[in-house]
Hints:
The complex is a heterodimer of chains A (138) and B (177).
Chain A lengths: L1 H5 L9 H4 L2 E3 L1 H18 L3 H4 L2 H13 L5 H12 L5 H10 L4 H7 L12 H17 L1
Chain B lengths: L1 E12 L8 H13 L3 E2 L3 E12 L3 E2 L6 E12 L6 E10 L2 E6 L2 E6 L7 E4 L5 E4 L5 E2 L4 E12 L2 E7 L6 E4 L6
Parallel strand pairs in B: 8-13
Antiparallel strand pairs in B: 1-5, 2-3, 3-5, 4-5, 6-7, 6-12, 7-8, 9-10, 10-11, 12-13, 12-14
Amino acid sequence: MSGEEEENASELKLGEDFVKAKCLMNGEVAMILEHRLEQLQQVSDDPLNQMPQVFEKSLQYVKRFSRYKNPDAVRQVREILSRHELAEFELSVLGNLCPETVEEAIAMVPSLKDKGRDLDDEAIEKMLTDLALVKKFE
Amino acid sequence: MFFHIILERNMQLHPRHFGPRLRDKLVSKLMKDVEGTCSGRHGFVVAIMGIEHVGKGLIRDGTGFVTFPVKYKCVVFRPFKGEILEAVVTMVNKMGFFAEAGPVQVFVSNHLIPDDMEFQSADTPNYTTSDNSVKIQKDSEVRLKIIGTRVDATEIFCIGTIKDDFLGVISDPGAAS
């Protein structure tokens, strides 16, 4: 269990199974799960009943907490964030929580301020403004 | 956090399923077996997205069952220590409160709720600041930080805190009324 102890998301230590994995923002998960539900609807009248509780709870959760409802907006958010050389995990946290100030963004994702990263406050500010714009024009 | 990862599983199939629809059978059995399960290592398997690779089957001695190694893509939910996420409050008591973030339960002890919030045992138990401006009750949405996880065979529990900058209530169901 030594690997378990070292896990820490604020330092981007996710363990070997998850470092290569793709992180998904809530909006993306909502798209995936709703698509899955539509497929099931074609073969069954009461599709949610056939899915385990984990599926249902996850779907409710991502629908409730997705800041961006529209699939194009979700795509734009990923596009904007991926211009900034963020790790997958950082990108998804920012996309999910949509911090409004630089200070808040750094509190949510402390690794933004790690040494050796070419990301100053201005760049973060610019990124947050771009995100807010997507939300505004959604 | 939700992840898109590739997992592997050895599937046992009865010989009566062998035929042109073998692969379909394998996929539907995989969904039935794996979706909704939880392991400490990979978290909750929410949905299978597709099959990456089906390896060569191996006949088991004595039974006739065949084992296929199957690699599949799936969406999992795995909470991490240090992660900040949003959750819905499900229960409030004097010990603290429980919240749900997707499939996972998070407990926030009253030691990890800001000191200026007091427990009130009204009809709907809640934590409220002295000036009544902030209230945590059932169905409130909170932003919290996970500080610990406990894993058992089929479930993951988390301990969270809202005693830090930019954490706490984001919306209160009672505020509108």
